[in-house]
Design goal:
Length: about 280
């Protein structure tokens, strides 16, 4: 870093300063405008950066699954450490310096739920920046929704960061959420409620909730959306409205003379489903 003791009149003129400003102001202007970029970055890391408070960044995964018998379920962990020990929490953790948000999500799912998922199963929500939401420090959270099949739900087991993995049944009409109001850590209950409402609004534009189904028929897809929307949906209406999101994968085997077509969810806007969803 340059040893700048005083700025001469030519430097001050170039910087638009009078020379009466505090030395720290003159020095900052010099490094920002007259020094090389390498010199500026060295000065910034030593002198300017420490003056700013820096938040920690975390990822939280809202893991949702569905079965026709029990409706929508939420996969959570029970925390084995303070704060909020023994409370329910989303799978998640702090972002490491060398990884992206997506990489952090996939790592946390592996560490806390012992599952291996593809990034296309993730839907990113808007960051949560509420002050004092974590008693430990300043934490900004980026929540993601991850859709699990019923089979994956059964395979999940607690990893090294969780006391146990729990399945909370939200019900066929998502009306069981309130019963868990006092059981969540941090602000995760409010995040869950906001995410559910956001997904309901999004269904008309992009029914990402279909991603929690294995290959499904139009009738099965309609039944899932009935759970989310609280209204009856005929299978032909379902197909006509959402066909651009349905990718045919063949006919169902061993079902009658003319087996129905099966589909999987596809996002026509992007190959991966982590475009931000406002909550």
């Amino acid at each position: 870093m340059l040893d700048v003791k005083i700025l001469n009149s030519d430097m001050l003129e170039q910087l638009g300063l009078t020379g009466k400003e505090p030395y720290e102001v003159q020095l900052k202007a010099f490094y920002e405008q007259l020094a090389s970029e390498e010199e500026y970055l060295e000065w910034y890391k030593e002198q300017d950066l420490p003056t700013y408070d820096k938040p920690s960044v975390a990822v939280d995964l809202i893991a949702l699954s569905y079965s026709e018998s029990s409706g929508v379920s939420l996969l959570v962990i029970k925390r084995k450490a303070h704060p909020f020990r023994n409370k329910y929490a989303f799978c998640g953790g702090f972002l490491e310096k060398s990884e992206s948000l997506i990489e952090a999500c996939l790592r946390e799912v592996s560490e806390e739920m012992s599952l291996t998922l593809d990034k296309s199963r993730l839907v990113q929500l808007h960051p949560i920046t509420t002050p004092n939401r974590d008693p430990r420090t300043w934490v900004i959270s980026v929540p993601f929704i991850v859709y699990l099949t019923a089979e994956e739900l059964e395979l999940a087991k607690a990893g090294d960061d969780a006391l146990e993995v729990c399945v909370l049944e939200l019900g066929r009409n998502l009306n069981n959420i309130e019963k868990y109001k006092d059981d969540f850590a941090f602000d995760h209950y409010q995040i869950l409620k906001d995410a559910i409402e956001g997904l309901k609004r999004e269904i008309n534009y992009n029914p990402t909730v279909l991603a929690m189904l294995p290959p499904f028929t139009a009738s099965e897809g309609a039944k899932l959306l009935e759970v989310w929307l609280g209204m009856n949906i005929f299978s032909n209406h379902f197909y006509n409205k959402y066909k651009r999101y349905l990718k045919p994968v063949g006919r169902r085997k061993n079902v009658g003379y003319r087996p129905p077509l099966e589909y999987v969810y596809q996002n026509p806007r992007d190959e991966v489903n982590y475009t931000p969803l406002s909550i």
